[in-house]
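In this section we walk through a basic example: taking a raw amino acid sequence and producing a predicted 3D structure, encoded as discrete structure tokens. The instruction is simple. Fold the sequence below.
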Amino acid sequence: MQDSWLEDFDHSSDEAYFATSSKDWTSENLDIFWLEKIFDYHTQKKTNYVYHLLLVDDHLSHVNFWFINYCDQNWILLIILSSHLTHWLQSLDVEIFSSLTHTYFTEIDKLIQSNSDFTQITK
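The resulting token sequence is shown next.
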């Protein structure tokens, strides 16, 4: 975790949750905890305790009996997407940021071509 990640964090109104595992990877225990104590807790209020949607990739910590059963018993519609599809289905990445990225790199190329002092600019 870096200090810069919390520069705009407002402790009076924002919430953040952090967890680690002994192997530095997510686990079924962490996913179930997140599902129950964070996702379900916060979304039930907003959906008036009716069905709410959760999109996940096919990571093994999501595709297990306990995770799926919890969703089924708690009005969570679970959609499991192939990990190779989730990148393309992220609407902000595909629809908005892809055109921004293209424009950004086009402008960088123009700047490099118009100024001999620049040979490369990284993110």
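Looking at the output, two observations stand out. Residues 112 and 119 are 6 Å apart (CA to CA). The chain has a mean pLDDT of 80. In the next section we compare this with other chains.
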